[in-house]
């Protein structure tokens, strides 16, 4: 029995009645009740990865399990996936299981009952007008008493009377319209030759229920979505289920609309903001197969798909797929594993694929489909560099004359412009002009970010918030604190001053909050209610705004600093995606990149629209040192309440480091955030050549390490920053 707690493996229990693997049961554990899952005796996880066996307990001390839950058992492929993720990420399997069963841990929400019309004949019941009216309104779709009585004009007594006579029956009211089955043929587009060929290749393994990974690459607007929806259609045609992963839930509204236009029915949706009740219904609908297509965040990988026939990862290069807390897994990589364990193909989709995926294409592990032209012959946006050394903004401002003029022109032409800056708040740093003191988070090694609209300084890592003081906390000088650098609030202030007639919309994760607010913002852009959009990375996502013809990147260099080997790759991917927002329809788009390092390969790649050369260069840089994807990497994050403890533990671990060929240990060094939420963090990197499994090495290495006094070691396999 696997329980959702950090035991090394399954625990033994007595079962009063025979239980099948996968069944969920309530389990007594100390004074608590948890939901456990009957786990298989044998596991197909590679022995390298196999988790240690559970603790052996004498038979007479075994406790009996509690009641069985009224849900379907977790399918075999999901159980194997839980084992696999646990072994790969070195996480106790119970904690991975928890991601699949979490929704059953709280009390079930009370189902709401309603009335449905039965097949029973009216018999000799006298048909008064109110009774007739109720029967006319009632159908096989459950309706609440209040609804039924308001629609029929009859009292609840009449309804109860009809129920007593057997003409109405109580039934659960579904929270959402039952998951309709999308129609594979509905709204099918006519594909171009290139698209049709790619679609045919993607459909083949779907038809054959065969695991195969394909990278679907193509510039923004080349019809990648249209093409992979053909594979979705093929899978629906086969009667199997489809999982589509998107990096950001905020995206799913536009995606869902498009899906409905293509298939005539809505997909199920999964993300962390779903209400408890909707979660349960979606979970159940995936489990019994009534939901056929689900679009979701990475956590959707842990849903109990009954018959998974295709997995799609859209924007596969996105770092949002990486979970950095709790079970640290990469959604894209685990999606491939999930597909393999279900004998289903996986499609990875991107305009700027990750170096990892390209390396897998190169070695032949993944197939490659390339769409080379934009649909309908639309031109790629024209990307220009604004050299801030030669064309600087006025003192204290951030928009260069060239960019301002371009915005003017765009707005005058009744078109829309977008300013992109990947930084929330007003200013990233607040400094005392008198003494040079910098406002820092008390819990993290990070500056406090001013949010002027709310009059506060806040830490974007731990959430620490304080009022913006009037005087410097260090030297007590009055009114000496000044903001350094821009966040989007400050850019908005400047835009309001420069373009007083513009209708501005600000889009950032903290101003949009909910998916509904995001959908409303998208609608306002689509309907032309606004013409100047200012946003953080949320605006970079796959939105489609036909009248948006200018994109200004306020600080293209942001993200290049920090010494992270992947910084350049990430910046290219993000900025290319931002650029892709411009001019998707008949209108050609223009993109201006404000940069102080115009000769940087990232800028060259963006301006020339040549990513092949850039990626080749990246790969040439990483290959000799066996940096990912040419070697394997694992990060050990050692943290403790104070720096000395963290140092001591880091040194102890470093001394026990494995010594063998092809393996190198780097560090200890301060972790990228050396202090986070009051914990001091050090990092060791384990780097190996390809072909060495890092998990057994790590398990052996850490076997005798016993962190004490609040210290901890977290293992991050395949960290995304290094
Ligand atoms: P990508 O996913 O590569 O950015 P999309 O699939 O979103 O590209 O296509 C861009 C636009 O072109 C969308 O509006 C899409 O509906 C349209 N489009 C692409 N291919 C076709 C096609 N064969 N027929 C009709 N419209 C198409
Ligand atoms: Zn903080």
From TrEMBL:
Residues that, per the record, bind Zn(2+) 1: 432, 435, 472, 475
Enzyme Commission number(s) from the entry: 5.6.2.4
Keyword set, alphabetical order: ATP-binding, DNA replication, DNA-binding, Helicase, Hydrolase, Isomerase, Metal-binding, Nucleotide-binding, Primosome, Zinc
GO cellular component, one term: primosome complex
Superkingdom of origin organism: Bacteria
Note accompanying the cofactor annotation: Binds 2 zinc ions per subunit.
The protein's name in its UniProt record: Replication restart protein PriA
Family: Belongs to the helicase family. PriA subfamily.
One Gene Ontology biological process: double-strand break repair
Segments forming domain Helicase ATP-binding: 205-371
The protein's required cofactors: Zn(2+)
Zinc keyword on record: yes
Residues that hold Zn(2+) 2 according to the record: 441, 444, 459, 462
Catalytically driven reaction(s): ATP + H2O = ADP + phosphate + H(+); Couples ATP hydrolysis with the unwinding of duplex DNA by translocating in the 3'-5' direction
Gene: priA
Subunit structure: Component of the replication restart primosome.
Protein role: Initiates the restart of stalled replication forks, which reloads the replicative helicase on sites other than the origin of replication. Recognizes and binds to abandoned replication forks and remodels them to uncover a helicase loading site. Promotes assembly of the primosome at these replication forks.
InterPro entries xrefs: DEAD/DEAH_box_helicase_dom, Helicase_ATP-bd, Helicase_C-like, P-loop_NTPase, PriA, PriA_3primeBD, PriA_3primeBD_sf, PriA_C
Molecular functions (GO terms): 3'-5' DNA helicase activity; ATP binding; ATP hydrolysis activity; DNA binding; zinc ion binding
HAMAP family: PriA
């Amino acid at each position: 029995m696997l329980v959702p707690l950090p035991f090394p493996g399954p625990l033994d229990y007595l079962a009063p009645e025979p239980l099948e693997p996968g069944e969920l049961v309530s389990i007594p554990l100390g004074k608590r009740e948890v939901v456990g899952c009957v786990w298989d005796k044998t596991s197909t996880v590679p022995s390298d990865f196999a988790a240690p066996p559970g603790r052996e307990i004498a038979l007479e001390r075994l406790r009996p399990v509690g009641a069985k839950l009224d849900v379907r058992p977790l399918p075999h492929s999901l159980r194997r996936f839980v084992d696999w993720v646990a072994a790969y990420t070195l996480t106790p399997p119970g904690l991975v299981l928890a991601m699949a069963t979490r929704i059953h841990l709280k009390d079930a929400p009370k189902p709401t009952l309603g009335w449905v019309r039965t097949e029973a004949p009216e018999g000799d019941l006298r048909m008064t007008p109110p009774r007739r009216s109720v029967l006319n309104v009632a159908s096989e779709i459950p309706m609440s008493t209040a609804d039924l009585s308001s629609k029929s004009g009859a009292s609840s007594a009449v309804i109860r009377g009809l129920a007593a006579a057997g003409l109405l029956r109580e039934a659960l009211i579904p929270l959402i319209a039952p998951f309709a089955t999308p129609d594979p043929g509905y709204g099918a587009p006519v594909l171009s030759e290139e698209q049709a060929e790619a679609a045919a290749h993607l459909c083949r393994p779907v038809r054959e229920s065969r695991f195969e990974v394909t990278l679907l690459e193509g510039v923004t607007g080349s019809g990648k979505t249209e093409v992979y929806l053909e594979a979705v259609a093929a899978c629906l045609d086969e009667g199997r289920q489809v999982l589509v992963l998107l990096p950001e839930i905020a995206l799913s509204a536009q995606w869902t609309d498009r899906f409905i236009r293509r298939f005539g029915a809505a997909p199920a949706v999964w993300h962390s903001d779903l209400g408890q009740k909707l979660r349960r219904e979606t979970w159940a609908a995936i489990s019994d197969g009534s939901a056929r297509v689900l679009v979701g965040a990475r956590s959707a990988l842990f849903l109990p798909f009954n018959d998974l026939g295709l997995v799609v990862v859209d924007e596969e290069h996105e770092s949002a797929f990486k979970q950095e807390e709790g079970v640290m897994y990469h959604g894209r990589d685990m999606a491939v594993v999930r597909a393999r364990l279900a004998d289903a193909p996986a499609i990875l989709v991107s305009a700027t694929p990750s170096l990892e995926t390209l390396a897998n294409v190169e070695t032949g592990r993944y197939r490659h489909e390339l769409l080379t032209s934009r649909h309908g012959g639309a031109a790629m946006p024209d990307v220009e560099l604004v050299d801030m050394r030669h064309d600087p903004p006025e003192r204290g401002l951030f928009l260069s004359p060239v960019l301002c003029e371009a915005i003017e022109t765009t707005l005058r032409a009744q078109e829309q412009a977008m300013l992109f800056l990947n930084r929330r708040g007003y200013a990233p740093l607040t400094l005392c002009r008198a003494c040079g003191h910098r406002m820092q988070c008390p819990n993290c090694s990070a500056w406090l970010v001013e949010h002027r609209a709310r009059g506060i300084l806040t830490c974007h890592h731990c959430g620490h918030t304080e009022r913006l003081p009037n005087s410097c906390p260090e030297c007590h000088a009055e009114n000496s604190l000044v903001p350094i650098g821009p966040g989007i609030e400050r850019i908005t202030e400047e835009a309001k001053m420069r373009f007083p007639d513009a209708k501005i919309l600000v889009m950032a994760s903290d101003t949009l909050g909910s998916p509904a607010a995001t959908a409303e913002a998208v609608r306002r852009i689509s309907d032309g209610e606004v013409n100047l959009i200012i946003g953080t990375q949320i605006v970079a996502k796959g939105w489609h705004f036909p009248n948006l013809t200018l994109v200004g990147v306020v600080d293209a260099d942001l993200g290049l600093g920090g010494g992270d080997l992947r910084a350049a790759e990430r910046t290219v991917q993000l900025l290319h995606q931002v650029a892709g927002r411009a001019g998707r329809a008949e209108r050609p788009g223009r993109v201006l990149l404000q940069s102080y390092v115009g000769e940087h390969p990232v800028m060259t790649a963006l301006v020339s629209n040549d990513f092949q050369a850039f990626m080749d260069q990246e790969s040439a840089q990483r290959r000799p040192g066996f940096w990912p994807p040419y070697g394997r990497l694992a990060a050990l994050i050692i943290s403790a309440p104070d720096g000395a403890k963290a140092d001591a533990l880091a040194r102890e671990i470093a001394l026990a480091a494995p010594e063998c060929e092809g393996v190198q240990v780097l560090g200890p060094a301060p972790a990228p955030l050396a202090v986070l939420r009051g914990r001091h963090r050090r990092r060791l990197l384990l780097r190996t050549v390809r072909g060495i499994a890092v998990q057994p090495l790590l398990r052996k290495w850490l076997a005798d390490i016993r962190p004490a006094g609040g210290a901890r070691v977290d293992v991050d396999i395949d960290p995304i920053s290094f």
